[in-house]
Structure formats: C-alpha cells, structure tokens
Request: fold
Amino acid sequence: MAVIIGAGTQVTGATGVVSISWDLSPNVERLWELGSFSPYATRIQLTQSVNLTVYAGGMNKITVYPPSTSCVDSGAVLNINVLPATCDQSVASLEGPFFLSSYSYSKGEPTAYAQETYAGQQWIDHETFPAPSYVLLGITEGQYQGTLTKDEMGVWGGTTDATGLTGSVSAGFPGIGQADETYFLTSVEQVGEGLLGDSDVTGAGKYGTASVTVPHTPIWVD
Reply:
C-alpha cells in the first residue's frame, strides 16, 4: 500500500479540490483452447477513470453540446493533471485529458456551501489493444431540484421535457418537511461554475441538487 499525503498532492486545472480518486482497470480477455493450460491469445483493454470533487466554482465551464456529427474527438473533457505526494512508495501521476462522463452539484442545506463533482474516463493504448480512433460525444441528459435555478447549480442550457415531484415530512414539533419539483433535461450545453453557497448573495438561503450524464462512445476504425 502506498500512502498519499493530501496536503502535498498537486492537482492542476482545478482549484478548491476537496478530493480526487482514480482507477486503472485492465479489461482482460483470454482465449482458451483444448489441450493447453496457456491462453491461445490475450487481449488487454486499458481504461482509466477519475472522480474529482471541488468547492463549487473550482473549475471553468465545460461545453457538452452539440453531440458529434463526424469522426472528431469530443471536446467535453476534464483537463486536469494529478501529482500524488507519497511518503513511501512511488505512485504514477495522472495526465489528462479525461472525457467527461458526469457532473453533479450539491447544496443540501440553505446555509451550506456547495460542491461539484466531475467524473471522467480515458482509453489507454496497449500493445495488445489500441486506444480508440475517436471518442464521440452523445446527447447529454440531466435533472435538478431545489430553490436554486439550474444555472446557479452549474447546469447551462438544455430543454425541460418532464417534471416530477418529491416530498416528505415527519412527525414532531413542529415536524418540518419539504417538497420539491424535479425537472428533467435534455441537450444540456455546459456544466460547471455553480454557486458556492451562503456567502454568495444570490445563493444565500437556497439549496438544490443537480446531475448531468455525458455519454461518450469510443470507436475503432482503420
């Protein structure tokens, strides 16, 4: 196990970083044949994912629209690099860009400060399986609820095509509950730069949550 010191770990491309996690996953495919204990062939597809949480406003807006109409890599990416600070074993640094897969905003209480979470993925070239020729951007979908507007929660543009309602209350004195409409969006245009919280004049006394899914599809062509 390698011990990483947060106070010394450097993340470029973002400010106000609360936490970051990453995972390198080898998708191993082995072909077996009769009469042998060794694989006939082995193919390894490497993917690396990253999950970054910042205080709201800690990253610039990321454009997630329009969807791809030709074979050109998506521009909806997390341009971040991570240099872990270790005190025993060496840990490799992470180098972007990562194709953005999701965004979320959370300000659960009117007096709380907000956080934004970004998730991304990259496909890595391997000697048995190449990186994709292109990574295409699909149509973004999302939802939000609360007393903040969707722009204040870092969700810009998009079309509302459905509305839901959630509510709850419990017994007690006085027994406070709440009800919120949930708005469902498609074709979100940008994400990020939501309000930090109670110190923001326009965000004081408000709350809300939002999430956006950003689909990416890798393709391999000759």
Summary: The chain has no helices and 17 strands. Residues 6-30+41-219 form one domain. The mean pLDDT is 93. The radius of gyration is 21 Å.
